Amino acid sequence: MMNIRPIHTEDDYEWALSEVSLYFENEPEIGTPDADRFDVLSDLIAAYEARNLPLPAVDPIDALKAFMESAGKSQSDLAELFGSRSRASEVLNLKRALTLEMVHKLNRRWGVPAELLIAPYALAA
């Protein structure tokens, strides 16, 4: 028996978090009932968080900078992708908006989720 229940309340959520945290210290072997339970609990937690704990909107350029940092990409790498050092600098310094072509390149070549880059944002004055 898996002993899993829906997550409707904050108490249910806390229960699920405590249950899934046990598996972080004693990782279940893939294909076992415990591994299945971990997967189901994780999916339930993710669904509850998506419904009840939405992430705040992220500025596209902040998202791009965070992605670049985590992926070890430099402004020079961005300039190579965009075809111009000045264009990369202008985008990162909010002097030029991302174009659809730039978003497409960032998504296709670097794997940056397009939905992070298409929100409106203000340029510097």
Characterise this structure.
Helices cover 63% and strands 0% of the residues. It has 125 residues and is mainly α. Helix 1 (10-25) crosses helix 2 (33-52) and helix 4 (75-82) crosses helix 5. The chain is elongated, with a radius of gyration of 20 Å. The model has no long low-confidence stretch (mean pLDDT 92).
Shape: elongated
Low-pLDDT runs: none
Number of helices: 7
Average pLDDT over all residues: 92
Tell me the radius of gyration.
20 Å
Hey, roughly how much beta strand do the residues contain?
A: under 5%
Fraction of helical residues:
55-70%
Q: Order of SSEs, N→C?
A: HHHHHHH
Describe the structure concisely for a colleague:
The protein has helices at 10-25, 33-52, 60-71, 75-82, 85-92, 100-110, 114-117. The chain is mainly α.
Q: Which helices and strands appear, and what pairs or packs with what?
A:
Blueprint lengths: L9 H16 L7 H20 L7 H12 L3 H8 L2 H8 L7 H11 L3 H4 L8
Structure keywords:
125 residues; mainly alpha; 7 helices; 0% strand; elongated
